[in-house]
Design a protein that fits this description.
globular, alpha/beta, nine-stranded parallel sheet, Urease, subunit C, domain 1, binds guanine, binds zinc ion
């Protein structure tokens, strides 16, 4: 097998810039080399230091005018909502009823599920995302379809059956015990097959009975290394309804904690309106948050306070998610841009280092995967995005006047989108090349 080597400017995060001095958190090598073998990075460093390892069995690809960085990791996205992206005029609870539930009901049809799943995986990779935590629907074929679609490119994908047994249309509820049984069967079928990982997925407290949350907790206890994803504290009406349905809980977070759903394996979308006490529970249990700014703006949910959430006195681990189809773009660059603007409205200016961290290593940490993805280091996956900072006339004009790497990276994340994704590598193989894609 021919090994691959990628040469060019290499940028990677190595630790959390919200908690450590920025200068210690990122590494930039203006003329770098990444050696790939068996899907992993076997070495990374300066070209001058590693060029001696380039034998004739190594295929060298040179990207002198690009930036090589870890593939983006979308920490929260719904593949069955791909078709309803950009649906007009509602906020969360009405949006679910009017657009989301009808769209999800179509995924009992395996053919439809396969078509959207194939589109979805290609669209992630076209946007430079090399791993994602994905919600399916309550139909088991929706889970099979997305895991099958991830197979050919050997993409790291977390997904699981949507568990919902109450306060939702009859064609979407799956019953507490049935959702447990089917989840268990799907874990046996898919978990740890290749790079696929199962994530237990109760939608949120509003559509799960106490019994279903109890059984979701049982799955976590019984299955060891599976993960959990859900939603929390996104919208004021949602929070009020959660309090009505679970009147003895101290707060929204307590609902999940009571059922054993709050630990380091758990990632919750949004968490915009969490109280100080709730953030403390997240910190103490190691539970994680997926920040989804394009969705929060679009559905009108509120302004996530990243500085408060990551307060170094009790930091919570945060990753970045698109939350398509509440979110409005598959592009993690666009998502970084919106998270910058949201933080601005909270009086905080996120730096480029913080933003690229959230989209790569931060998401990896929030998904409990920072030992294998989210950074370019020997032994990590060969999941790499090649960014073209001069992808459009405007980007070229801007890039040519940038006086530092930080300035260039910042302007790129504010102004760029899928056009700046020149190539995407997954597990050491090229899966998308902009200039040869049709
Ligand atoms: N809360 C519960 N379900 C959903 C969903 O599908 N999207 C969003 N944005 N929030 C949710
Ligand atoms: Zn969501």
């Amino acid at each position: 097998m021919t090994d691959l080597a990628l040469r060019g400017p290499v940028y990677t995060l190595t630790s959390d810039p919200f908690l450590n001095p920025e200068a210690d958190c990122a590494v930039y090598e203006p003329d770098g080399l990444i050696l790939l073998r068996d899907g992993l990075i076997s070495a990374v460093g300066a070209y001058a230091n590693l060029r001696g390892t380039l034998t004739e069995t190594v295929e060298l690809r040179h990207y002198p005018d690009s930036i090589l960085m870890p593939g983006f990791i979308d920490a929260h996205i719904h593949y069955p909502q791909s078709e309803i992206i950009g649906s007009f005029g509602t906020q969360l609870l009405e949006w679910l009823q009017k657009y989301t539930f009808p769209a999800e009901a179509r995924f009992v049809d395996a053919e439809h599920a396969r078509r959207i799943a194939d589109f979805f995986i290609a669209e992630l990779q076209r946007n430079g995302s090399t791993a994602a935590s994905v919600f399916c629907t309550s139909a088991p074929v929706s889970v099979d379809a997305i895991f099958e679609a991830a197979g050919p490119s050997n993409m790291l994908l977390l997904a699981g059956l949507m568990m919902m047994d109450s306060h939702a249309p009859a064609n979407l509820v799956n019953g507490a015990q049935a959702s447990y049984d089917v989840s268990k069967m799907l874990i046996e079928r898919w978990h740890n097959r290749g790079r696929r990982l199962y994530t237990v997925s109760p939608r949120f407290a509003l559509t799960s009975s106490p019994q279903q949350l109890e059984l979701a907790g049982a799955l976590l206890r019984e299955q060891g290394d599976v993960r959990l994803q859900s939603h929390i504290s996104e919208n004021r009406a949602e929070i009020a309804r959660a309090a009505e349905l679970y009147p003895t809980a101290a707060h929204y977070t307590d609902i999940y904690e009571r059922y054993g759903l709050l630990d380091e394996r758990a990632i919750y979308g949004h968490g915009i309106h969490l109280s100080e006490e709730e953030l403390c529970r997240f910190h103490e249990t190691g539970a994680n948050i997926a920040h989804c700014p394009t969705s929060n703006f679009f559905i009108g949910s509120g302004l996530f306070d990243i500085a408060r959430t990551k307060d170094s006195a009790r930091p919570v681990t945060v990753g970045l998610g698109t939350d398509v189809g509440g979110g409005t773009s598959f592009s993690m660059l666009q998502t970084m841009s919106e998270s910058y603007k949201m933080a601005q409205l909270r009086g905080i200016s996120l730096t480029a280092t913080q933003s690229y961290y959230l989209a790569t290593l931060g998401s990896a940490e929030a998904l409990g995967l920072a030992d294998r993805i989210g950074s370019l280091q020997a032994g990590y996956a060969g999941d790499i995005v090649v960014l073209d900072p001069r992808a459009t006339p405007l980007l070229k004009l801007r890039a040519d006047s940038a006086e530092s790497l930080d300035e260039l990276l910042f302007a790129l994340m504010i102004c760029a989108d899928d056009r700046a994704i020149e190539a995407t590598y997954v597990a050491g193989e090229l899966v998308y090349a902009r200039d040869t894609a049709n």
